[in-house]
Amino acid sequence: MTKFSLLDHESVPKHEIMLEGELKSVLSKYSIEKEQLPKIKVQDPVSKEIGAVVGDVVKITRKSQTAGEAEYYRLVIE
Protein backbone atom coordinates (compact mmCIF):
# COMPACT_ATOMS: atom_id res chain seq x y z
CA MET A 1 0.00 0.00 0.00
CA THR A 2 1.45 3.37 -1.01
CA LYS A 3 1.14 6.30 1.38
CA PHE A 4 -0.90 9.18 0.01
CA SER A 5 0.63 12.62 0.48
CA LEU A 6 -1.82 15.39 1.29
CA LEU A 7 0.51 17.85 -0.42
CA ASP A 8 0.07 16.02 -3.72
CA HIS A 9 -3.65 16.79 -3.81
CA GLU A 10 -4.60 19.60 -6.19
CA SER A 11 -6.75 21.42 -3.62
CA VAL A 12 -4.02 21.55 -0.95
CA PRO A 13 -1.78 24.61 -1.44
CA LYS A 14 1.98 24.47 -0.96
CA HIS A 15 2.96 24.51 2.74
CA GLU A 16 6.53 25.05 3.94
CA ILE A 17 8.18 25.80 7.25
CA MET A 18 9.80 29.24 7.13
CA LEU A 19 13.45 29.83 7.88
CA GLU A 20 14.29 32.34 10.63
CA GLY A 21 15.68 34.98 8.25
CA GLU A 22 12.67 34.83 5.96
CA LEU A 23 10.32 35.03 8.94
CA LYS A 24 12.09 38.09 10.35
CA SER A 25 11.71 39.97 7.07
CA VAL A 26 7.97 39.13 6.86
CA LEU A 27 7.34 40.21 10.45
CA SER A 28 9.29 43.41 9.83
CA LYS A 29 7.42 44.09 6.57
CA TYR A 30 4.05 43.92 8.35
CA SER A 31 5.31 45.37 11.69
CA ILE A 32 3.88 42.49 13.69
CA GLU A 33 4.99 39.91 16.23
CA LYS A 34 4.95 36.20 15.44
CA GLU A 35 2.12 35.66 17.95
CA GLN A 36 -0.14 38.01 15.94
CA LEU A 37 -0.18 35.67 12.94
CA PRO A 38 -3.21 33.45 12.31
CA LYS A 39 -2.77 30.01 13.83
CA ILE A 40 -2.60 26.41 12.65
CA LYS A 41 -2.64 23.47 15.05
CA VAL A 42 0.36 21.16 15.33
CA GLN A 43 -2.14 18.29 14.96
CA ASP A 44 -3.41 19.61 11.59
CA PRO A 45 -2.77 16.86 9.01
CA VAL A 46 -0.61 19.12 6.84
CA SER A 47 1.39 20.36 9.87
CA LYS A 48 2.11 16.74 10.75
CA GLU A 49 3.08 15.88 7.18
CA ILE A 50 5.65 18.69 6.85
CA GLY A 51 7.04 18.02 10.33
CA ALA A 52 6.05 21.37 11.85
CA VAL A 53 6.46 21.83 15.59
CA VAL A 54 4.90 24.33 17.99
CA GLY A 55 6.46 27.76 17.37
CA ASP A 56 7.21 27.20 13.67
CA VAL A 57 5.66 29.50 11.09
CA VAL A 58 4.23 27.86 7.99
CA LYS A 59 4.13 29.73 4.68
CA ILE A 60 1.17 28.72 2.53
CA THR A 61 1.33 29.63 -1.15
CA ARG A 62 -2.08 29.59 -2.80
CA LYS A 63 -3.10 30.20 -6.37
CA SER A 64 -5.06 33.43 -6.71
CA GLN A 65 -7.23 34.54 -9.61
CA THR A 66 -6.28 38.19 -9.06
CA ALA A 67 -2.68 37.99 -7.83
CA GLY A 68 -1.49 34.79 -9.51
CA GLU A 69 -0.07 33.54 -6.22
CA ALA A 70 -0.71 34.75 -2.69
CA GLU A 71 1.26 33.93 0.44
CA TYR A 72 -0.30 33.33 3.84
CA TYR A 73 1.44 32.71 7.14
CA ARG A 74 0.33 30.58 10.10
CA LEU A 75 1.92 30.14 13.53
CA VAL A 76 1.93 26.51 14.66
CA ILE A 77 0.28 26.12 18.08
CA GLU A 78 -0.47 23.21 20.42
From TrEMBL:
The keyword Nucleotidyltransferase applies. It is found in: Cytoplasm. Transmembrane segments: none annotated. Gene3D superfamilies: RPB5-like RNA polymerase subunit. PROSITE patterns: RNA_POL_H_23KD. It is an enzyme of class 2 (transferase). Its main location: cytoplasm. InterPro entries: Arch_Rpo5/euc_Rpb5, RNA_pol_subH/Rpb5_C, RNA_pol_subH/Rpb5_CS, RPB5-like_sf. The keyword ATP-binding does not apply. Residues 5-76 form the RNA polymerase subunit H/Rpb5 C-terminal domain. GO terms for cellular component: DNA-directed RNA polymerase complex. It catalyses: RNA(n) + a ribonucleoside 5'-triphosphate = RNA(n+1) + diphosphate. One of its GO terms (molecular function) is DNA-directed RNA polymerase activity. Keywords: Cytoplasm, DNA-directed RNA polymerase, Nucleotidyltransferase, Transcription, Transferase. Pfam families: RNA_pol_Rpb5_C (PF01191). Its EC number is 2.7.7.6. Belongs to the archaeal Rpo5/eukaryotic RPB5 RNA polymerase subunit family. Part of the RNA polymerase complex. DNA-dependent RNA polymerase (RNAP) catalyzes the transcription of DNA into RNA using the four ribonucleoside triphosphates as substrates. This is DNA-directed RNA polymerase subunit Rpo5. The gene is rpo5.
